[in-house]
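Section 3.1: Structural characterization of target chains.
Under the original work plan, the team committed to producing a structural model for every single-chain target entering the pipeline before any wet-lab resources were allocated. The record below documents one such target. The sequence was received from the expression subgroup and is listed exactly as submitted; it comprises 79 residues.
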Amino acid sequence: MIICELCLYREGSECKLGLRTPKGMSCREFGAVLDRFCANANDFVNARQVVEMATYFGVKGSELKKVKLMAARAESDRL
């Protein structure tokens, strides 16, 4: 798995921003989006669930921080 599979800016196998595909789980322009973690919006339980998924996939550092912010926003929007 690569970080692009969870990114907002991925379209097909290309980056909308024109960046090269990274070999690991880091990208300076990573854009976390809930749709890439939960295909069905009803599958979203809470922010902790998404953060655990990201950690399992190997997301770390600033990318994990972006996932946490996105998940927290999604959770507060549901309330």
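The chain has one domain: 3-78.
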